[in-house]
Amino acid sequence: VNDMANLMDYLDWRGDLTLEISPFNEVDALILAELSFVDFDGIVPPPELGRGLPLNEAAEAFFARHGGKDVPMGVLGPDPISKMLRKLMTSPRFRNMTLNGYTALLDDSIEQQFAALTIDLGNGSIYISFRGTDDTLTGWREDFNLSFLPKVPSQESAAAYLRSIMALGFQNVYVGGHSKGGNLAVYAAAQMTPENAAHICGVYNNDGPGFVTDLFDAPEFQPLQKRVHTFVPQASVVGMLLEHDEAYQVVYSTQKGIMQHDPYSWCVIRNDWYYLDDTTTLSKIMDSSMRQWILGMQPEQREKLTDAIFHVLQSETNAKTVQDLVDGGAGTLSAVLHAWSDMPPETRRFMQKMLGELLRIIGQLAAAKRRSEMLAGRMRTMES
Fold this sequence. Notes:
The chain has 14 helices and eleven strands. By secondary structure, the protein is α/β, with parallel strands linked by helices. It has a nine-stranded mixed sheet with strand order 1-2-3-4-5-6-7-8-11, sandwiched between helices. A two-stranded antiparallel sheet has the order 9-10. The radius of gyration is 22 Å and the shape is globular. The mean pLDDT is 84.
């Protein structure tokens, strides 16, 4: 199945079909989610200015700023974005969409990494795109914070952003994101008043982590819950973290393991995803293991573990991004080892105990899975 179409092929094959010819779909929703990863600062106006810029003009200005070259997105960033943007700026389907309301916040002091973009589709609908985790360690720290805080600063910013855009009176609103951006989209939509929620046509969560608290408990959220679309690849790790009470659909990815989080590896058939019936056995084991591990810790233990991990990564290295850690090579590794050895012994023991517990849970679940598969095999043999 490795030669199946992906997002880039979709743009080549169907990018000339306007929304009037072929209506907005799930693949479009992920493409627009990726658009908020582009640094449009100083190009696309912030929300308070209210002047939109056609996508093709915004893209031209972005490449002009970078000497016409593709822009790397860091070690863990989605590098194909530059290539995707080149296709979007010439595509009849996307090039005249209007970009507005670009907002980006990075604040180490409150451990926040947030960005959002509003896209007018030109057919009476808008799409609000929330950026996922970028290459900054602050962004990754905020992801970890999701495991013990009822809400993180980016979730509050996402709700405030969506509220401010909806106050402008839009009738047909889509909200979406990839990775943490998907989590923000669901969280923001769940914070709207029932009157505003009625104007949300769809919420697209592409392999975003779940929540510590149950967002769907409130009766007023039930109608909106039916319009939440969650997609995960078959070996999803990120998208299966924490609680997912909503149904999800499984998309085939050509990558392996955690690399399936890369949306450019997701497979497309015509104007939709290539779906599978379920996630893989390994994904289920990892999902159950992570869930048992996280839920087995008290919130203060999760916080202590997060503090310890980021202390090791940042205290000696001065790294701001994952790219910085990689570029540091052996120097970074020795700094990390130094930070580890400098930790109070009880913190080190705590980390070792917690990580050992995760390995123990994974081993137990894998062994139980093997036993059940062997039993099922014996039953089939007896029946035949």
